[in-house]
Amino acid sequence: MAEESQDDSQKTEEPTQRRLQEAREKGQFARSQEITHWFVLLAATIVIGVFGKTIGEGVVRGLYRFIASPHLFRIGSEDLRAALLETVTQIGLILLLPLGIVMAAVLMAGFLQTGFMISAESLKPKLEKLSPLKGAKRLFSLRSLMEFTKGLGKIIVVAMVIALLLWPDWTLIPTATSLSVTQFVHLIQTLAVRVVASVVAVMTVIAALDFLFQKHQHLKQLRMSKQELKEEYKQTEGDPMVKARLRQIRMERARRRMMAAVPEADVVITNPTHFAIALKYDSDSMQAPRVTAKGADQIAFRIREVAEENEVPVVENPPLTRALYQSVELDEEVPPEHYRAVAEVIGYVMRLKGRLPGGRATRRV
Fold first, then answer.
1. What is the four-CA torsion angle of 76, 77, 79, 81, rounded to 10 degrees?
2. Domain boundary assignment for the chain
3. Residues ≥6 apart with Cβ < 8 Å to 274
4. Are strands 314-316 and 290-296 parallel, antiparallel or unpaired?
5. Total-model pTM
6. Which fold has domain 260-352?
């Protein structure tokens, strides 16, 4: 018991969407029975208001022969069995549509609360359900006490509402026997609609409060500890250490590929120490020079080092280097706004290599 309370005290975090979805798949919903009762009462109000007179007169017609002339039927006779079967069929057909409306209201109440969800998890046999000790704990738990108190309070409130509504017409009940069938059915229909409609109004408040309470209890039961959040994050997003290692491996591979492209570059422009950009240009296959390597600090130093080892010209141009580092990604072509500056660098390199006519230029552009 102490361990359970300690575990509950550690569950301080709100449930994640995954936790809620798993509970939903297991058939655990924030569902209020009062909402179902409200829909049933609303359907009953509609049925009584719309079909009450038809139902009442039909039931009276079906039972009239047994009330007016019961001496005509003998116990065990075929006439009695036929009359009973006919009466049951007649009343069943009359009640078929009203019962269908009530069943539709029950289904609607469940659908609005939980959506369309079918789960067989709750139907699976569990040994804990057969445990008398756990059954006693559930029976005498705080939740059961609250449900009992809530149900008792609801009965008292509804009974008071019904009593207040019927009290002014209490004197009509003794005179009901003197009314005709039509008048009696109309009286019962009027009182029933008034009572059920008033109960629906009271149940609206009760159902709304109970649904909020059930939702709060459902979320409270699904709360998670910080350790559970970490474990779920590992399961969904992966272990952070593994992800970091994979990211490091990908960066190292990309860096090796980038360094392998430096010897093929036409020029490396530098900041001179903080940034380095390697450019490659082939007039036959490229519209503009392309960035084949880029880096800052240690990577920039390594790019310059590889370039010098492979006799790739290194040109200092801090403004152009910073601009290209910030605006051009790896393997992208130089944007038009930098064409002029890059053309000067490429032209300098080509003249340096003797590929273009011109005089000798300095290494700083």
1. 30
2. 25-117+137-223, 260-352
3. 296, 297, 300
4. unpaired
5. 0.47
6. name from scop (3.40.1690)
